[in-house]
Amino acid sequence: QRQMCIRDSVVRSADGHCGVVFSVREHPTTRFDGLLGYAPTGGWSGMVHVRLENLFGTGRSAAVRWYRAATQLHEVALQYEEPLPPWALVRGSFHMGQSDTLYTETLWEAGFRWLGQLAQGWWLELTAGQRRVEPAGTAPVAASVSWYGGIISQLQRLSPRDNPVRGVFLRLFPSVRWHHLGQPTQTRRRCAVEGDVESFLPIRFPFVLRLHGHGRLVWGEGLQYAELYRLGGVQTLRGWRESQVASPKAGWGGVEGRWLLGQREHVGASYELGWIEGVGWYWGTGVQWQLQTAAGLLQLSLAWGRGDRPWQAKLGVRLLDVGL
């Protein structure tokens, strides 16, 4: 988290020796991401994510995240990472959320991440956790406890990070879950796979093409509503409201053309297409503008889903990677 730059080119001392003077400046160790969204039929949504990096100069980090998807979802999450030099770290996290006023869930998770150089920008993490669901009042949701384990594999090679011109991002997370349901206790096994891929291709300066694809799949006997994936919003399907749809199977992808306006700025237009079980085919279009401000990177977006009128656009406002 330190950046070195040349302050003065050459300095000559009294005894005739010459040297180069460097100025070392430490980056802010507290980072902030914020998201604000609006949909005419769903109301306001928001997200605040604060990361505390390199705590006490040791490489430790912590994060706090708050997320609200209109009336559908309300979440708070905490995370802490402890490095184990030179090639590993351990991670612990806690998550609490309320969904559709139907149930409350709490989740404890631990991970062991290996940072050895399989390839540049590639790491593996063994993950295990417990998830508990408690129904709210007389809601038709059964109380349950789930244990799960899996392996997260991630590769990130994007350059530059804030406004990629080239590179690739891959993430794969297969897991197995043991779901203990109701009284008397019933144990059911589930399997799940999450996958994401993203690629940036420089076509002809200043035009950049972004291609992306995503998959979510969970299967097993008697799946409960609380086990489904929540989809929709700026971070998944932009043509839908935040967490508008719950489904056990979904696949979608898209293409986005970007016109670079500067090192960290661009304008773009996108098209998305996908299939979601229980809903059918989805498609959406959108436009986006990313600009540099005194507060940080600001992203503004408008998106339309299947059947939307021009005045039914979903508005997204996101402030990225602000140093505090």
Written account of the structure:
With 324 residues, the protein is mostly beta strands. 0% of the residues lie in helices and 71% in strands. It is built from no helices and 20 strands. The protein has strands at residues 2-12, 18-26, 30-39, 43-55, 60-69, 73-84, 88-99, 103-114, 122-135, 144-159, 166-181, 186-204, 207-219, 229-231, 245-247, 249-260, 266-276, 280-293, 296-305, 314-323. The protein has a 16-stranded antiparallel β-barrel. Mean pLDDT is 85; it is low at 1-8.
Would you summarize the structure shown here?
With 324 residues, the protein is mostly beta strands.
Low-pLDDT residue spans:
1-8
| Gyration radius from CA atoms, angstroms | 23 Å
Shape summary: globular
The helical percent reads under 10%
Separate helix tally: 0
